[in-house]
């Protein structure tokens, strides 16, 4: 297994140049894999909060709503925090391609646990496995998309937008189908359907993985075999510490969200330090990593608001939204599919727009600033409907707010994935993507922490504060864009 860095020009790029909407052929395969993984992930997450706080007689676990929302945020943070482990395994031991394959198996086992193991045991086992597997899959799927393009290929941002559309097709179908199954058969059957979706994605990837370019199989910075025992000892020690912390009550369901936030913050600081001090990173690459820091902060703020779709917005849909759809009471989990519908409609529009603009398109910092500001406007748009009581908010109004969520997401999320692959040092290709996902981890955890301040009595002040804060951050980032651009060293 070679230890040389990935080639900047994948062997498959030229012959497959116009195979999939003008992009490399393997983009279609990774598009499909991510679609099914997201089907299972969002299908499960669409009913997860309700499973946690619905009463036992309604098939749930009967948790307090605030604690349940915090746990959902902590779980979301854990998913993206585990991208560190998945990226490290890819860059040091297995390579992106094999890490993705094994991670998909772990995810499927997690969904099976949620479906078959009852009570808190099934919840704990399932969420831990899904978090670990998803972390390994997400960072490596993104890194594999990056291997399909040359460093300065103008199609790259558009390719990631197309890939992002696959994510959201799965995100659209998953909550709808699991919601219907939950409504008619119960929570555990809904979780079972998520397991079936992941099994389809795994089978599809197993059949097509051999067609990935050679660079997908490279281990960028192999771990010497002499250090395997040491790393195994460290892993065992970490597991023991975690077990003891839980056993002695230092980590509980009530404080888990705070613990996850601290871990994500420390991991982010540590990751930046490791990459910036590495002797394998040259001066230009180091400057590019510095340029990523303000983008990391902006991304964290964005996800702290956006991920409230699974906490505050889910609670809002269950308590204040008029769920009557032409005389049929739709499950509140269907709300989770509104954003993916808009992504599917507009992802291609954004991809086409960036492609046509070419070198005239806004730089990455400006796109991030736009995403933050629009996200702030989306939260301010809740204010006219706040405090109305049960069934008071029209479904069309929430759809309009989630359309703003979508425009914000398309301005920042696929661009962040693309920027991570472009700014990554040669020795840290997948781990730089994991660093972007750490911003999602920290933001997701903060979304659960912020949810504890939300109630029907605090809606106006809650939405006002977060909306204005996001807009102000967006303006500051736009003003700093020229300085950030200089540090990016020619990367747009």
From TrEMBL:
Keywords of the record: Cell membrane, Membrane, Transmembrane, Transmembrane helix, Transport
UniProt keyword Acyltransferase present: no
Localization, UniProt: Cell membrane; Membrane
Stored Pfam families: PTR2
Highest taxon of source: Bacteria
Residues annotated as domain Major facilitator superfamily (MFS) profile: 29-485
Name recorded for this polypeptide: Peptide MFS transporter
């Amino acid at each position: 297994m070679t230890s040389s860095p990935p080639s900047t020009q994948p062997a498959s790029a030229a012959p497959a140049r116009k195979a999939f909407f003008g992009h490399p052929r393997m983009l279609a395969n990774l598009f499909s894999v991510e679609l099914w993984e997201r089907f299972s992930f969002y299908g499960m997450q669409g009913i997860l909060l309700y499973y946690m706080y619905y009463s036992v007689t309604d098939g749930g676990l009967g948790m307090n709503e605030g604690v349940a929302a915090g746990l959902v945020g902590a779980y979301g943070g854990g998913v993206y925090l585990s991208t560190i482990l998945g990226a490290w395994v890819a860059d040091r031991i297995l390579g992106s391609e094999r890490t993705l394959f094994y991670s998909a198996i772990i995810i499927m086992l997690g969904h099976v646990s949620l479906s078959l193991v009852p009570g808190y045991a099934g919840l704990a086992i399932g969420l831990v496995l899904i978090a670990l597997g998803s972390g390994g899959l997400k960072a490596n799927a993104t890194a594999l998309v990056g291997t399909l393009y040359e460093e300065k290929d103008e199609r790259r941002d558009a390719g990631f937008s197309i890939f992002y559309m696959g994510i959201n097709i799965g995100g659209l179908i998953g909550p709808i189908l699991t919601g219907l199954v939950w409504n008619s058969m119960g929570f555990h059957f809904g979780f079972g359907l998520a397991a079936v979706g992941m099994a389809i994605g795994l089978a599809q990837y197993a059949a097509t993985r051999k067609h990935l370019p050679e660079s997908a199989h490279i281990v960028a910075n192999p771990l010497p075999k002499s250090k395997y025992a040491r790393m195994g000892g460290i892993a065992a020690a970490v597991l023991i510490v975690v077990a003891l912390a839980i056993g002695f009550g230092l980590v509980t369901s009530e404080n888990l969200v705070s613990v996850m936030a601290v871990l994500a913050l420390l991991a982010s600081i540590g990751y930046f330090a490791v990459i910036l001090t590495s002797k394998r990173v040259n001066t230009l690459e180091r400057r590019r990593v510095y340029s990523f820091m303000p983008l990391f902060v902006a991304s964290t703020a964005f996800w702290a608001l956006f991920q409230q779709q699974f906490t505050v917005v889910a609670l809002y849909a269950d308590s204040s939204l008029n769920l009557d759809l032409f005389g049929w009471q739709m499950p509140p989990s269907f709300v989770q599919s509104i954003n993916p519908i808009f992504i599917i409609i507009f992802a291609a529009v954004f991809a086409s727009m960036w492609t046509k603009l070419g070198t005239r398109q806004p730089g990455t910092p400006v796109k991030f600033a736009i995403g933050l500001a629009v996200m702030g406007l989306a939260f301010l748009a809740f204010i006219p409907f706040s405090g109305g009581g049960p069934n008071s908010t029209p479904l069309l109004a929430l759809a309009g707010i989630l359309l703003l969520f979508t425009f914000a997401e398309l301005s920042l999320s696929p661009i962040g994935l693309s920027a991570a692959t472009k700014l990554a040092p040669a020795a840290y290709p997948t781990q730089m993507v994991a660093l972007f996902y750490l911003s999602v981890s920290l933001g997701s955890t903060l979304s659960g922490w912020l949810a504890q301040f939300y109630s029907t009595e605090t809606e106006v002040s809650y939405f006002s504060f977060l909306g204005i804060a996001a807009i102000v951050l967006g303006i500051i980032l736009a003003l700093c864009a020229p300085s950030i651009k200089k540090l990016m060293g020619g990367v747009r």
